[in-house]
Each structure stands twice: as structure tokens, then as C-alpha cells.
Amino acid sequence: MNNSTITKEGFSFLKELAKNNNKEWFQENKTTFKRHEADVKSFYENILERLNAHDEIEKIKMFRIYRDVRFSKDKTPYKTHFAGSFSRLGAHLRGGYYLRIKPGESFVAAGFWEPNKEDLFRIRKELEMDASEFRGIINKKSFKEIWGELEGDGVKTAPKGFDKEHQNIDLIKKKQFIFVRNFTDKEVLANSFLEEVDKSFKAIRPYFDLMSDILTTNLNGESILD
């Protein structure tokens, strides 16, 4: 099946799962789950096809419904959402896209969730040197209308070796560099949802282009790729 929409039935299943988050109910309804999972996977494949028309995606990852409860106080065995991520092409492009489907809490996200320490240091040094281009992109009206403000965890004062009084310390403190766009249930179930997701991902491209340039060059602007 080539699914270009998220179905009401799939949404209803997730709501029922939230009310009956136990192994007995899930086993009884596993056939239904598999059907909805296949529909959702097809929807994500459609997103992948759209993404590859204007970006280069190295891999798509669909997250399993089963929760790892070993270190969690919440012992419910199943996630009550569908989710998947799209990783951009390796060392050349970096970053990724994400989509979660959950009644009342659906969103797309894009950016850098857990940059390794070398990448994080490189980004911070760039922002220390000059953040004008970075701010110009993320503060552009058309960008903010879709993606809002830069999000992500950060350190409380200043990273080691950086001046806590630096004019760009608000950015330098970041450990994650992500953007999130939330969707209502009505928007997710609309026929236009696939287009809206793709539109969102297209709009993040100037940000990705800049970050790719930063992460593939040294502070002199020279390529560090082989």
C-alpha cells in the first residue's frame, strides 16, 4: 500500500493502546497493530521519497513500539506513538529529520540531537568567531513562521574554554541544535499532512546547508573531508 495519509483508524488504535498498555491487550490486537504499522511505514516511505527529491538521505529508521523499561520508572511495555528518523548523507551533510505520530502530541523535528564532542566544539568555535550568518538564517521571518525558535538542551553557564560574557553565549551554551514544529490531530489527519511535513523539511534546508559547511571545514574555511 502506498499511504499518503495518516488514518483515523491508526490514531484510534494508539488511543486504545494508551488506555490498555499491557501485554495481554496488545497480543489480542497484534494483527490490528501490524496493519496500522504497515500503513505508517508506507507513509514514512513517502516522506523519504519526497526528501530524496531535494536532499540526500543515507538511511531511514523506524522506531519499535516496544519500550525499554529496564531503567524507567514507567513500566508500561509499549510506546503510544509511531516515530521514525531520516539521517542525511554521512560526513558530507550531517543532521537529520524526525517525525512522531501521537494523538495530541505529534511533531516534526530537524537538526542535531546529539552531536559528538568534536562536532559540538567545532560548532561552538564557529559561533564564538561569528554567529551573524547563523542568526540571520534562524531569525528570518519565513523560517520562524514554520520552525519557531531554536531548541535543545545546554550547559548552565559557559562550556569550558569559552567566555561566559561572550555576545553569543546563548548559542554557545547549546548542546543540541534542533527545531520542532507541532501539529494538531486535525492537521495530522488532513490530506495535506504529507505536503506540510515536506514543506517543513524544505524550509530547514538553509540551516542544514550552513551547518554542513561548518562541520566539513576548519575555522579557516578549508575542507576537512578526504
UniProtKB/TrEMBL annotation:
Ranges in a coiled coil: none
InterPro entries registered for this protein in UniProt: CHP02453 (IPR012808), UCP028451 (IPR015996)
Protein name per its UniProtKB record: TIGR02453 family protein
